[in-house]
């Protein structure tokens, strides 16, 4: 144990892989989706495993989950290495204490990156747009004949045991949380945008920007494809590493079959095209080939996706809007529409000023329905400065959908675009998206003739 710890002392990025964990004592910190996938991988490597979570009520078959504050931390401190889930901040005092004691704290994504052929890996990161960009890129690469898997936040974890071993390309949607777990540079890093997010995890806006873009400047970083249409990203171009290639515009007519809404999504599609070109796919420079490849794409649920229509009222799901920037983008895409918007979620203490002003001074008729937890302070702030935007509180999505429809009819849009994570009421954005879609479907059933 002593040799293993000394080898990785005083660094927060550890260039080790799963094979290095054979026969050692491993702690799994976090018993969610990634933690469970890590357990599956570890089952083939070692029998000396401890599982710890802040929530001791998580139940896993055949596994005891220890509470962090009831002996769990001490168990982690007895391990040779700890695999943490991305949701646990690297700046937490307990995680930093483990590092100071010489115990490497790693992530499953980084462990896999160390062992895979990184020339096949394209990491997609950014404050907004990474899910759409990653999914479009994965679709294009597949249509152009490459065996491709999209992993990360919108797919299976990169270290999922069921991930095929004979892939030509692996697209990894990479959060700022996961970026700090990666020590080995991928072949290409795609950066979609930069704004303010996850201040509670990173500690400051500046640190978030540094951490978010750190993937591009790892040792042996090769190629960065970056979105020039993001002003903040241009301003922090000094943080970008590797050979930087900028995307300067919107996708042309080839992108029509993708069925994407808004100029921001056309910018995402163009970024995906340039990433494919950088990966060596020559067809990505052929408009006709691109148009054919774009066919059959299914837009992501939760990203400005249509759910249904009741009379002339449309329902749109934008649950993946977990920060201010994508909600502002949604408002821009729906400019001129009569709009009832459901906002609010887990309160990370971010600055909502720009969103508050945009909603308070929106030209078209607007109703803001505040969801727990941050929705209340948003509605209060909007109500103090608006002269025409209406505000109200909704205790949950179901009642919010009903109230939004009652206001929006006979013609308008009901939009879920929370500008906040889902953690306060839901396990993840998809669960929140499902709740919205279920509420809309229930409303449609009640009003069926």
Question: Your description of this structure?
Answer:
With 449 residues, the protein is an alpha/beta fold. It has helices spanning 2-7, 33-42, 68-76, 93-100, 108-115, 130-143, 176-179, 199-202, 205-213, 231-235, 263-278, 287-294, 324-333, 353-360, 375-385, 397-408, 429-446, and strands at residues 26-29, 49-53, 65-67, 81-84, 105-106, 121-125, 148-152, 169-173, 188-191, 223-227, 243-247, 305-310, 312-317, 339-343, 366-370, 390-393, 411-416. Strands 7-8-6-9-10-11 form a 6-stranded parallel β-sheet. The longest helix has 18 residues, at 429-446. The radius of gyration is 22 Å and the shape is globular. The model is unreliable at 1-11 (pLDDT under 50).
Properties at a glance:
single chain, 449 residues, alpha/beta, UDP-N-acetylmuramoyl-L-alanine:D-glutamate ligase, Protein-Tyrosine Phosphatase, Chain A, 6-stranded mixed beta sheet, 17 helices, 17 strands, 36% helix, 18% strand
The CATH homologous superfamily name of the largest domain equals Mur-like, catalytic domain
Helical segment count: 17
Q: Say how many strands there are.
A: 17
How would you classify the helix and strand content by structural class? alpha/beta
CATH topology of the largest domain, anyone?
UDP-N-acetylmuramoyl-L-alanine:D-glutamate ligase
How large a portion of the residues is in β-strands, by DSSP E? 15-25%
Order of strands across the main sheet: 7-8-6-9-10-11
State the helical fraction: 25-40%
Global Rg: 22 Å
Q: What is the total domain count?
A: 3
Q: What's the average pLDDT?
A: 92
Q: Which runs of at least 5 residues are low in confidence (pLDDT < 50)?
A: 1-11
Shape: globular
The CATH C-level class name of the largest domain: Alpha Beta
N- and C-termini, Cα separation? 70 Å
Main sheet characteristics? 6 strands, parallel
> Which CATH architecture of the largest domain?
3-Layer(aba) Sandwich
